[in-house]
Amino acid sequence: xxxxxxxxxxxxxxxxxxxxxxxxxxxxxxxxxxxxxxxxxxxxxxxxxxxxxxxxxxxxxxxxxxxxxxxxxxxxxxxxxxxxxxxxxxxxxxxxxxxxxxxxxxxxxxxxx
Length: 113
Prior knowledge:
By secondary structure, the protein is mainly α. It has one domain (3-112). It has helices spanning 3-19, 26-40, 46-63, 67-85, 91-112.
């Protein structure tokens, strides 16, 4: 799966999880997080390493159903993703900006639930 398709799947998965929480158990979220960690392996760069570390932390929060820390982690991931996209002026940059916004929105929704 290419990164564009993975980004779209992630965005859709986040929307679906909030629209139908009973259909998306934590295992689905953990699998998605693991897929992103693997996809970023070997791409290099300290920004990507930071995102991978944050994804690993998020994985633990999801496993423990630690909602306050999940929300904080999603917020940080959204901010990092948006920062990475700021200098990309193509379709990938647009998708990353959308993903960043979706992650921040998910964080806010989680804080409210």
